[in-house]
Design goal:
Length: 176
């Protein structure tokens, strides 16, 4: 506790003598953001190789996003579509809670592929047209049966209401 108080007093004295020091310290601590910002789109082969090395990819497998103004710059276009839950849970990852290895490049849409989002872990069993035809077949079958049996309505069999005596008053609301 004493060392914490001594550090606090030292920072107070330092800030009183030169207030710019604290602002500069805060700026240097937040400098890691610029490390993750993509550089401009690579125009030459040397820039492509430098960008591939920056993202720990081989030059043959490095392909940046198209330069269409979205701001991806030299960030590599990684194949996507399968979420993290599709990865092998028993592989010895460097960071097992994230299912990632050291220096593994993030996908540009990594927030869409995390484990707290739904993603289809494997391709669907049938094509979408098969599902659509199955839906239309069921609905058409139901409509055909409905219109075919329209003239043959079924009702619950109900007998006529039975009273103790026909035409006689069998209840009264007078007081006794």
């Amino acid at each position: 506790m004493a060392s914490l108080m001594n550090t606090y007093k030292f920072v107070q004295r330092l800030a009183a003598q030169n207030p710019v020091v604290l602002r500069q310290a805060a700026r240097t601590m937040a400098g890691w953001n610029k490390d993750y910002k993509p550089a401009p789109y690579p125009k030459t082969e040397a820039e492509r190789e430098a960008a591939a090395k920056k993202y720990y990819l081989l030059p043959e497998e490095y392909k940046p996003y198209a330069d269409n103004g979205l701001g991806y710059g030299d960030y590599p276009e990684l194949k996507g579509g399968l979420g993290i839950e599709a990865r092998d849970p028993f592989y010895p990852y460097d960071f097992p809670e994230l299912k990632r290895n050291l220096h593994e490049t993030f996908h540009a849409n990594a927030d869409l592929y995390s484990e707290d989002r739904w993603s289809q872990a494997s391709p669907p069993r049938f094509a979408n047209s098969t599902y659509w035809l199955g839906f239309l077949g069921c609905m058409t079958g139901c409509l055909v049966v409905y219109y075919w049996l329209e003239n043959y309505r079924m009702y619950r069999p109900v007998a006529a209401k039975q009273y103790p005596g026909d035409g006689q008053k069998h209840y009264t609301f007078e007081r006794n």
